[in-house]
Each structure stands twice: as C-alpha cells, then as structure tokens.
Design a protein that fits this description.
99 residues
Length: 99
C-alpha cells in the first residue's frame, strides 16, 4: 500500500491498484504503536458511520506504511478508544459554539 499525505486527506492504493481517498480524523499512540482513524472522503450525511482504523508500520527501508488491523481484539479496542476520543472532540466543539 502506498500513501500520499495531504492536508487532512490521504489517498491509499491497495494491492489491486484501487485508490480510495480518506479523511484523517485522529492519531493515537497506544502500546508503542501508532494508529490512525479515517472516514471515507466521499461520505454523505445519509451514509452509515464507517470508521477505518489503520496501524503505522515501518518497512525494512524505514518507510512508514499504513496497514489494516488483522486482530479482532486489537481492532475492537482501538475502535473504542477512537470512538471515545472523537465523541469528546465533538462535545468540546458543541460546547465552545454555545459560549
């Protein structure tokens, strides 16, 4: 998989050559690993909430690569962490708008 970092968007290319644009929401350091949460960039308000969580791994040449989480327990734990962080962020945003 290759990555192109932009402002808050990233374009990933999978093994089949398909590209998908994702919006970067948050990054967490957890258990000496870096995890990143994304949403599809082309989402409408009618679309279901689909959080995509990937882990940053180093290749042998030192390049960073985003990989999917294969362990269901790891994925569930990270989903919970990101969900709580994002919920807090939205609550903070709503509170600051009322000031």
């Amino acid at each position: 998989m290759s990555e192109e970092y932009g402002n808050d968007f990233i374009t990933l290319t999978d093994e089949d050559g398909n590209e998908i644009e994702l919006e970067h929401l948050d990054t967490v350091e957890y258990n000496n690993q870096t995890y990143m949460a994304f949403l599809p960039a082309e989402m409408s308000l009618d679309d279901a909430y689909e959080l995509i969580i990937m882990k940053v791994e180093l290749e042998e040449d030192g390049e960073e690569m985003l990989v999917t989480l294969d362990d269901e327990d790891e994925e569930a734990e990270m989903f919970q962490i990101f969900s709580e962080r994002l919920e807090e962020t939205f609550e903070d945003d709503e509170g600051s708008e009322q000031d």
